[in-house]
Amino acid sequence: MARFIAILFSGIADGAITGLIAIGIVLLFKTTGVVNFAQGDLLTLGAYFGIWLLVDLNLPTGLSYVMAIILSFGVGVVVERVGYAPLRKRPLLAIVISTFALSLLIEAVIGLIFTNTPRTLPPPFGSGVWHVFGAAIPYQDVLIIAVTLVVFLLVQGMLQRTTLGRQVRAVSSDREAALLQGIRAGRLTMIMFGLSAAVAGLGGLLIAPILSASPTLGFTLMLGSFAAVVLGGFDRIGGAVAAAVVVGVAQQLLAGYVAPNLNEAYPFMILLVALIFRPEGLVKATVGVRY
Amino acid sequence: MSVTESGSQAPASPLTSASEKVAARLVRPAIYSRHQGRTWLAVAVVAALVPLVVTSGYGYNIAINSGLFAILSLGFYFQFALAGQFSFATPAYYAVGAYTSAWVSNSHGFLLGFIAAVVVVAILGGLTKLLLARSPLIHFAIATLAFSGLVIIVLENWTSFTGGDQGKFGIPPASLFGYQFDTQTKQYYLIAGVVLICTALLLLFERSPAQRDLTFVRDMGLVARTSGLRANYLQVVAFAAGAAYMGAAGSLLGATTGFVDLNSFSSAASVSVALLVLLMVLLGGSGMVWGPIIGAIVLTVLPQVLSSWQNYEQLVYAIAILAVILVLPGGITSLPAEFRARRAKLRQRAQQRAEQRAEQ
Predict the structure, then answer these.
(1) Does the predicted TM-score (pTM) go above 0.90?
(2) Position A282 in a domain
(3) How much is the pLDDT for B10?
(4) Can you give the residue range of the structural domain that contains B246?
């Protein structure tokens, strides 16, 4: 029982991280209709920003977290300017390849600056554990789950309750009409790229204390969040986050009870099975069009 | 208009926008470029003369390597440019082809090994596309990324099949009907021959009605379906054919080096093989058969010349892909057409200016 609860919790925490990447993917898909392959590497970048500010420059924890998130936002905007804006009128394939190239670029730059040796970030609330029904649950796991929940609620609230969110929904349903209403779709896309990068960067800050940061950290995690986004629906943030938690728990359960040595293969398998059997998602929804 | 009179205009690549392509079609309805037979012959003559220039074993290594990558890139061109499917699974097909051929040729000789590799990988490729038939473009790309990762993990753990870390040794050199390809010169000719055959098949395919159907399906999927084309069938076959090319490249890898080891496909190298092939096709040009071949040669020779690249390899590749996509979506092979179009525009502008002056 204790083991089950421990596995369950680390699964939910894993799912929460993939959920953070998934939120970024869905936000971008809603506004632009493209999938950003660099999303995972933006997470890696967030982790390295944190390590650079907190460990190398010795800044206070809160300040370096905030600065890392702001920097991630900036990188997201740059990604939009370089990899999306000039290609907006070109076929989808060109944009897919350019975001993929950007993902490699980020990975290569991180590798050149920080080398390939794994680094870790000290956990902000120490490495203590909570005992629940005999299972030891690290504070960091609880923090991850709590932060993801807050981010999810904030993003959802932003989409439903603010002017910015209304503009996003307008652009997502009809870009032309939104433009005619005076919405600056170009600027909105830029903000959304920045926002999804910031969310990914936050994910990086949260995961770096658990898994040590290496240049390929985010790319591996991104495969899991792709599975979540496919299962949960490309245009539903709630669905994607829920699916991310399911995928995370399933992965941990498979690793804990079936075959631990195939750990790295599970995200691939879940993703393939999802795409083969339910490419339109677990719950059927209308497929978004690209605007 | 120079566009109509010149035989070859900017070729229709999957990376230029649909409206441009429609405009191109309105000008000149022919979809394939004509007179490719002559170009093919010229290329064959050049390939046959290469051993006059290349004499060292090192030079032959480079030539053989660019040949292998040319076959891989042609396979990718089949999947990417003709079928319009973006796939990351190149290293998986390459590896499966190499190991299948290694096992079969050990017991049944090279020819059967080669055929087995081609058939097995074609079936594997067809199955991938068939199972993922309902996935739209981006989903398919993601799925092939996962598929490739999974295949590499399976191979890494199946040591009795792959020979583990040491790799699989003692693969007999290629031989056809008793003729042994045992020197590097002979091996070079074998590879060059396969590249030429692959190219010829692609050229024949490009002027067949099937290619027109495939382009129709690629550019206007739903419309093609409505007009009675078997969209899925066409794409599965095209994808499988591309995979078969990659299987052939894998088989030739084992037959020329004598051993296959997992390092050339392992998880770290796997992304870079997929990436390298993508860059070869993009740089050479995805609008013409010659593009992938030029790209493969350029990108095999350049790193040898600029050996200081080593540390910055990934960075350079990433920037190169971005640059090609942003600045030259048609690749190197589109340069003459681009140049011609620009000159025509300049001439037109000069003419207009002259007319204006005449009016004044």
Answers:
(1) no
(2) no
(3) 43
(4) 34-311
